[in-house]
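Homework-ish question, so no full write-ups if that breaks the rules, but can someone show me the predicted structure for this set?
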Amino acid sequence: MNLTRRDVMALGAGGAALAMLPLPAAAADQAALDAAIKKFTGGAATKDGGVKLTAPEIAENGNTVPIEVEAEGATEILVLAPNNPLPSAFTVSFGPLSGASSASTRIRLAGTQDLTAIAKMKDGSFAMAKRTVKVTIGGCGG
Amino acid sequence: MKRTQVKTVLVVAAVAALALAGVARADEAMAPNMSKVLEINGEKMITHTKAPKNIPGLSEIYSGWLFRSPSTQTMETDDIDNPGMSGEAMGEIEWANVDGTAGKSCASCHGDLAKMKGVRTQMPKVNKAGVLWSMENYINDCRTTRMGAKPWKWSGANMQDMVAAISVQSRGMPMDVKTDGKAAKYWKEGEKMYYTRYGQLQLSCSNCHEDHYGDNIRADHLSQGQINGFPTYRLKTGKLTSIQNRFKGCIRDTRAQTYAEGSPELTALELYVASRGNGLSVEGVSVRP
Amino acid sequence: MKNIVPRVKVPATVKAGEVFTVKTLINHPMVSGFGKDKKTGKTIPREIINHFSCDFEGQNVIAMEMDPAISANPYIEFQAKVDKSGTMTFTWKDDDGSVYTKTAPVKVG
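A: Not a homework solution, just the prediction itself:
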């Protein structure tokens, strides 16, 4: 196997023919971000506070970043990763048997960015929280 | 494209900086935070202990788990939080799956998967013919000679799912590979490789994993390179990674030609590196970045 | 046909109205649609689980619209509460039309 520089840097598992990840990094696409927010809020104003967004300050790998969102009294929460190719990461909605308006999952982040959560409250208002997650480029790719 | 080049320069600079950092005396590296205790489903794992006598370069050995960030550490503490356990579940199913011309499954000869308890602690192991084999070799030998089935690719999902399922049976047991007797010559070969500088960057395994564990290589926290947790679920790839695939990644990062998975060289290296972790718990399926 | 094994963790017994944690994990590569084949340079088509829901005896607990940002082997953890014993049903929907389900009994006692 001849190793080119690109092979050396390819971050996929060695031997894997397909490089599905990482997601290409790009600057935030403001228009796409605005559209995703508007789709959720219908253009209503969002106020800060009332939403808790938990994520590591520094992610060990951008492909699997654990996050938790919580907003008491929310019926739905939208989570956005503004610098991802698609800003919308997921939207969670809480039914009558939900025990708390919270959810945890793991997401991909294409680089350091301000994760954003917008909660739709029972009264129809919207609340927002942001959190910066630094995505490091590992030393060893391998 | 530009980004790739910048990254390349950074990696080379970081790795070269390590190489230039001079010859650190044995065991001068930084110990991880050992106040953290790894319990998997409530069962306590041995994540640090005294180094084996035949590993003079280390006085204490540490599982890679200790070097990880809290969120990554947590993922390994419960089977439902550990995405690698999905692969293990597939391996359990495959264990009873009939494949090949002989109409047999693994279970046809070996019975219950639980009987594989202890196997992982011994791998790699010299076979009856005197050749050193990794678990993958034993699995493929069963498949081809007993089952009449096609061999699996070394790092393919089928293979690593099965390696995971077998490994989990030994979870918590200390690694205990044989380094003497018929294994001695392989072990010595592996030891020699471990301390040999490879590639354009002229780095040996020991330069990073013995001299600099605990240090950062850019944003990565270097571990001792222990393999007691393999196969490992990597957050980067979202897949189970084999021991020898990880070796290839390391050797490639030294900008060297890599050996193939299953080659005598990597298998000898696997024995030696496994022996550096003799005493650490098999973690079954670990989670690493 | 992919080999998909959904897994869930639900307490075997809960108190009526008590809030309890539910964890789910399903093995799926979650192909984002933004990656490229290293050899051909062509974009690998998206193929993800795009929706998850959890219901209990016909009533919804939680639902999630999932975008390609969700990591491979999606993990979802949330809180639920029930008043009576019954079956919790978990449903994952794949881009390819497949639907994966799993059920778990919950006993109120």
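Now go work out the reasoning yourself. Hint: Chain C touches chain A through 37 residues (CB under 8 Å).
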